[in-house]
Structure formats: C-alpha cells, structure tokens
Amino acid sequence: MDAKVTGIVSYISWVGWLVAFLAGDKEGAKFHLNQALVLMIAMTVLPIVSAVVGFIPIVGFIVRLVAGLCCLVLLAFWIVGLVGAIKGEEKSVPIIGNIQLLK
C-alpha cells in the first residue's frame, strides 16, 4: 500500500490500523498512523472509564454526560483526520493531535 492508502486505512478501525501498520507504508504514513492510534485509544478508554465511574449515583451521571459529549468531539476529530488522510495532508487533529506515540 502506498502512503495515502495506508493513512486512510489506519482510521477505519483497530483492524484497519493493524493492517496499515503491518502491511502499509509505515514511513510515508507515520503521521496518520500516529493520529489514528491516539484517536483509537481515546475512543476505547473513554467509554470504559465512563462505564466504570457510571455506577456512582450523581457523579456517574455527570461523567457519562461529559464522556458522551467527548465521544462526539472525538468523532469529529476522527472525521477531520480521515478527510486529511484522503486529501493527503498532514493536518493534526485539534487538542490531541500533538501526542506522539509512534516515533
């Protein structure tokens, strides 16, 4: 896969990210692989934390509400990243885009 296709596939799901990481052009799409990884981790951890804390009566409701809004924001960030990969641009997603997990 070339860098553009690797970047696009990396945003699809965890499986897509693994395929892009293992079979794609890692050096050419390292930016999008990193962006997608940060988004996937955030989209996985946030609902888990919300479910665990959600059992606390008042605090749980507030946490679930905030987590739901954060999930919508993460969805918007995912769309921004995917559109950037489709256009072939290296545009960071807002707020969490500067986190570097892949070197």
Please render the helix and strand layout as text.
Layout: H1 3-10, H2 14-23, H3 30-53, H4 57-87
Helix pairs in contact: 1-2, 1-3, 1-4, 2-3, 3-4
Any low-confidence stretches, pLDDT <50, length ≥5? none
N- to C-terminal separation?
A: 20 Å
Helix/strand/pairing class, anyone?
mainly alpha
Q: Largest sheet, if any?
A: none
Rg on CA atoms, Å: 15 Å
Helical coverage, percent range: over 70%
**Overall body shape:** elongated
Q: With helices defined by DSSP (H or I, 4 residues minimum), what is the helix count? A: 4
- Our estimate of the beta-strand percent is under 5%
Number of strand segments = 0
Q: Give average pLDDT, whole number.
A: 91
- H/E series, N to C? HHHH
Give an overview in words.
It is a single chain. The chain is elongated and about 50 Å long. The protein has four helices and no strands. It is mainly alpha-helical. The model has no long low-confidence stretch (mean pLDDT 91). It has helices at residues 3-10, 14-23, 30-53, 57-87.
